[in-house]
Amino acid sequence: MSVATTITAAQGAVFDDVEVGQDIPSVVKGPMTTAHIMRWSAAMENWHRIHYDWQYATGNDGLPDVLVNGSWKQHVVIQLVADWVGDTGWAWKIAFQFRGMNIPGDTLTAWGRVTDKEERGRWGLVDLEIGLRNQKGEESTPGTARVVLPRRGGPPVPYPFDPAALDAP
Amino acid sequence: MSAEVSEPPDYITPAVRAIIGAEAPPIEAPHAVEASEVRRFHQALMDASPRFWDPEAAARYGGPVAPIGFPVHAMRRMEDAPDPLDALQAGDHDGVDRRLRPGLPEVQVPLQRLVNGGYAYELFRYAHPGERIRLRSRYVDIYQRNGRTGPMIFVVIEDTYETVRGEPLLRSTNTIILR
Q1: Which string of b and e fits A118-146 if b means at least 16 CB within 10 Å?
Q2: Per the domain annotation, does A129 fall within a domain?
């Protein structure tokens, strides 16, 4: 048996096991370096100088250093939620604000906490508070998420996801 | 507010108000999602989920997929489009395109600083390599708030991403702040 055949879809959280107030597993990235920022900027073809031109970032814009891309940070909080729901639930809604800067040297931890849960149709909805903190505990990307999870013994969450399916008889 | 502090001008002029609700013609990504592009993305994100490359792990989705937020970056430079780096030759250019979305009218406000306030995403489906992505954008709202640091214009844009066959991928509500 090849190694690849042992990889299977990820079992995500099950609604019945979720408790309001619980923390979900965090996702940690870093320490971030200018190379990480360059790699992302190149992958998405972002030419904003504050991500690679130190003199411009600190001089013209008065920033403490070049900045970790907000466009990158958003995917980290999305990954946090997507990892938790796995391939059995669905990360329906994710919203966040870019409130703070992150710079090279930062180690970033995406975190989430369950704020509410309710049954909906044959599935369960769970609301989360989410964010991205650096090693000093400073929050830069606070937000919220709503996910759809299967109930134990219940049907799989429909994919592609159509919100109308939640209320279908 | 004390009488000697002057109220900032109202930047939401009739011309600005007139573009609220404006919709851009649908635009298509210049090329279909590429497997190597997906690899560079998930590696730059340091997201090692096998759903990005392993058909078995991605069975629920009908095969390997791009990261769920990938469509937001799919509207790339056309082959014959002007080089964006040319603008950097003007010494103080910050490298950011002031056209907030292709096909949407410019927000005519004399404020230079642009801050991305954040996003609210609603996710429906992963995009697959080989699929071409289409974007529809519209101004949902444009409004002014006067803070202690001066006036701020909030531009709220809804972006709807789908495959060119019309399968919904994600909807994004982006708040951009001009100040």
Answers
A1: eeeebbbbbbbebbbbbeeeeebbbbbbb
A2: yes
